[in-house]
Amino acid sequence: MSPEALVVVGDRFEEFLANRGTVPVSVLLDRLRAGELPESLALAIGQGLTDNQLAELRDLMSGAAAGIPHRAERALTHKHRAENVLVGPVRRLAEDRFTADLVLDERVEVLADHLTGQHIPAITILEAARQLWTVVTEQYLIAGTERTRFVIGSVNSSFHSFVFPMPATLRYELLGHSTTPVGAIYRCRVGVHHGDEPAAAVVEAEYRVIPEKLSAKQEAMAARRAIAAQVAALSEAAEAEAGAAAEPERAAVPA
Fold it and tell me: CB under 8 Å to 107, separation ≥6 — which residues?
């Protein structure tokens, strides 16, 4: 008898779960708790599982716990809430190449109000790519303890096939790096892959890493200029409106 093989995904991926060979995580956990699954179960951890669900799977499947993913350290992704972390710990493959698992919680902010069809939306993939280049840069490319901010200069994305809520990896390639008086600039390419398949999505980006104090100062100055320009435009429009309203009154006065 061949071993049972299943892809487990979050309960929210209802349309994807209509496919044979998939199982909602809630059903899988119920069957594991009841001891209804064979020891030979072959399980692929797909997308949508929460940290608590992943932890319970590790407890219930101690023999296969090594294949159950973790999430990257929240602070490295520049996120405040753990469920919004989309990538696993980064592994270095070469001097300029890195990889991490896609580890999607179904409650993530970029999925909460947009889930149509069976695939993972593009906006979610873009945020996962941003998190990957942030973790890679924080962990491997910059030194020191000074707090930094990331400023995106450009992002170009292409989508070649669907990214489904199955196991997936993100691969980062550093394309270029330069240092300027106001921070370092990095260019990278991030591909999203199911196994050894060609990239389903590719994101290329250029971003600058700036000391937080300098970035805050630059942002504050830009905000003041923007407000001043808006107030000046409002004042000019109000003066023009007042002048236009006064014209009929002047025209009605006899010469």
Answer: 50, 83
